[in-house]
Write a structure and sequence with these properties.
Blueprint (H helix, E strand, L loop, with lengths): L7 H14 L1 H28 L4 H28 L1 H8 L3
Length: 94
């Protein structure tokens, strides 16, 4: 008997339930994301204050910006896992 394919919305709900169940991992994502963000922001501030205006300064600042963006997205996933995904899990009944 062939396996039934799950609907995309069903797969998303299963993923949301799993994310909402794992508080420890979500908290770790939040902490790692915040640390990565602040490290990237520190690189931007360091480049602005320590390096003379040049292409090198801009490239370093760009790297800091990308690092900060990665940190924000990681922290957002962790925060949503701690709050919103748990609420979805709580209110969603199958």
């Amino acid at each position: 008997m062939p396996k039934q394919k799950k609907e995309p919305s069903s797969r998303v709900m299963v993923w949301l339930h799993r994310r909402g169940e794992n508080q420890k991992q979500n908290f770790l994502l939040l902490i790692i994301g915040a640390g990565t963000f602040f490290f990237g922001a520190g690189i931007i501030i360091w480049a602005d204050n320590s390096i003379a205006p040049s292409v090198e300064q801009e490239i370093i600042a760009l790297a800091g910006t990308l690092l900060s963006l990665t940190g924000v997205l990681t922290a957002l996933l962790g925060y949503l896992g701690l709050s919103l995904f748990r609420l979805i899990k709580f209110f969603h009944t199958d």
